[in-house]
Specification:
Shape: extended
Oligomer: single chain
Distance between the termini: 46 Å
Largest sheet: 6 strands, antiparallel
Number of helices: 9
Number of domains: 4
Helix content: 10-25%
CATH topology of the largest domain: Immunoglobulin-like
Number of strands: 33
Strand content: 35-45%
CATH class of the largest domain: Mainly Beta
């Protein structure tokens, strides 16, 4: 939960935020002092709170344009590190903005024990780092009704996740898409909500269930930092570097649903089982034809429901028409395919001149919201049918005294000029290459399969190739930003490349690579002392640049050269 207060004076406002306000021991939170419409005369003084240390300050300046009006905002952010579990009160801040004094309310920070994961006031209830739920808008549905389902994952600092296929016995599971992530408070803890979204269509009545569902999630956790005794250690410590990743298995309990049968009363004639909410459109062309000429029908059913399963009532009962089979396609307007249109196209042929119109078409469906059957009917389409042409037309032409048309063309008596026949196919080079094409295609497929099997059996080789490509691209970006004098980007790229290269060589997660890896992993490998000290120096330069990124273009280019040489040496490490 956010604790905040906003006060306004002469168009300026100030608020204090603590995000999140509940954490575990060993984690850090962020204190933000945000100003709208003005800046403080002086930076606020941080309070002295026993058991809390503040550090890692940063400034974020923003300028917004809304409806042609300009507004500015400033955010001062600080890392807050608790020494032990408990509840802490951060006193109110008083700042002067434009000659006015603005004051915030005190903020409360709750730090839960890292080992018990128990939240105050929950009687020792366990609060997991991640949990999985199957969420549906309702549990009472009809047979054939489209039911949206969300497979929601709630996790603290998730990095990546993988969810299995939703078990749904007696149902048809539709397409799946990933949900947008967001942050929601639960049990006093701020979780990140992610997961996937899908649909199910029950195929039979009775008590069914969705799930249970299993998945895996990788989360970032705070790792204890080594104490050096430096009095400024807490101030300059960056909590986002003291993290490692953990993989957790999560399971969602099954959700029971009660599936109702469609009503047996007032069922419209020709009902084909459609359930949802739809509209009907029908068009025909041409409408002026001769007997035996085809008329093309286009029938479009639009709305929300299980579009793939829609079928039309039979048109074989239309008198005076010969009906041909139809073809259909689905055009959706959303990623899950729950809304859109199903279009049927088919040809009909009028068999006599007594046909005056294309009959009305009735399409019926069941509305699950109002629990009623609905029938849609279009108006008949007028049709002009003329007698068929042929020998009767020829006789009419002869009676009019005109020359009779030639029905048979006389055989040509002379061949005329003969054309040169092209050379036979066997004399062309490509004719002999053509039979080898299947063999070449088979060899290409066989090689691709063997390569995939080889890469699947050697995951470290896959990671080494991926990191090599990342390092090549990163070195190029490093040189470009160094030439532009962009110090912040140079140090960010340097730190990321060191993490990826060392993580690949040492077979460790890249997110867990910090300066501590020099003493813990590099020194035992008996590497050259110059290489170890260079890696340490680069990590220290990146940490210092977080608070004062600066340097001339020449310095940045020299640093880029050092990084490239160091990465080349690290690639030679054999572990």
């Amino acid at each position: 939960m956010f604790g905040w207060l906003a006060l306004t004076a002469l168009g300026a406002s100030f608020q204090a935020l603590l995000d999140p306000a509940t954490i575990y021991a060993g984690q850090a939170t962020t204190l933000s002092l945000e100003f709208e419409g003005g800046e403080p005369d002086n930076d606020p003084k941080l309070p002295r709170v026993p058991g809390l240390s503040f550090g890692g300050s940063s400034r974020e300046q923003r300028i917004n344009f809304v409806n042609g009006r300009q507004s500015s905002s400033l955010a001062l952010k600080y890392f807050v590190n608790p020494a032990q579990p408990g509840r802490y009160i951060i006193p109110a801040f008083s700042v002067r903005v434009g000659g006015q004094t603005l004051t915030s309310k005190p903020l409360q920070l709750t730090v839960l024990p890292a080992n018990s994961r128990a939240a105050p006031g929950t009687s020792g209830a366990q609060i997991p780092r991640a949990l999985l739920r199957i969420e549906v808008p309702r549990t009472n549905v009809f047979v054939g009704e489209l039911l949206p389902v969300e497979l929601a994952l709630y996790a603290i600092n998730p990095r990546q996740y993988e969810l299995g296929q939703l078990p749904a016995d007696g149902c048809t599971v539709g397409k799946t898409e990933r949900m947008n992530t967001g942050r929601v408070p639960m049990n006093g803890v701020l979780y990140t909500r992610a997961g996937t979204r899908t649909t199910v269509v029950p195929n039979r009545a009775g008590s069914l269930q969705l799930g249970p569902l299993k998945g895996r999630v990788e989360v970032l956790v705070q790792t204890p930092r080594r104490r050096t005794g430096d009095p400024f250690e807490d101030f300059f410590n960056d909590p986002f570097l003291n993290r490692s990743s953990e993989v957790a298995d999560v399971t969602a309990d099954a959700v029971p649903i009660h599936v109702l049968s469609l009503p047996t009363q007032n069922v419209p004639p020709g009902f084909t089982g459609a359930v949802g909410d739809y509209s009907l459109e029908l068009s025909a062309a041409p409408t002026n034809v001769a007997v035996g000429d085809p008329v093309h029908l286009r029938i479009q059913i639009s709305g929300k429901g299980a579009l793939d399963s829609l079928t039309l009532p039979s048109l074989d009962a239309w008198k005076g028409f010969r009906v041909y089979p139809s073809v259909s396609r689905v055009e959706t307007t959303d990623t899950l395919g729950t809304q859109g249109s199903k279009i049927f196209e088919q040809d009909i042929v009028a068999e006599n001149t007594e046909v005056k119109a294309i009959p009305a078409l009735t399409f019926s469906f069941f509305d699950p919201v109002n629990a009623v059957y609905v029938s849609l009917t279009n108006r008949p389409i007028p049709l002009l049918v003329r007698p068929a042409g042929g020998s009767r037309g020829l006789a009419a032409t002869a009676e009019a005294g005109g020359p009779p048309p030639k029905e048979i063309v006389h055989i040509k008596p002379r061949p005329g000029v003969l054309a040169l026949v092209a050379p036979p196919l066997v004399s062309r080079p490509w004719f002999w290459v053509l039979p080898t094409a299947p063999l070449l295609a088979w060899l290409a497929v066989w090689y691709g399969r063997k390569r995939r099997e080889h890469l699947a059996a050697h995951p470290r080789l896959v990671r080494r190739q991926m990191v090599a490509r990342l390092v090549r691209a990163g070195v190029a970006d490093l040189a470009r930003h160094a030439a532009d004098g962009n110090a912040a980007e140079v140090f960010v790229i340097t730190f990321r490349l060191l993490q990826e290269q060392l993580g690949e060589r040492l077979d460790l997660p890249a997110a867990s690579i910090t300066e501590a890896v020099v003493d813990e992993h590099l020194k035992p490998l008996a590497l050259p002392e110059e290489l170890i000290e260079e890696v340490r120096a680069l990590f220290q330069a990146c940490n210092q640049a977080r608070y004062a990124p600066a340097g001339s273009v020449q310095d940045l280019q020299n640093l880029a050269g050092r990084v490239q040489r160091t990465l080349g040496e690290l690639q030679k490490i054999q572990v």
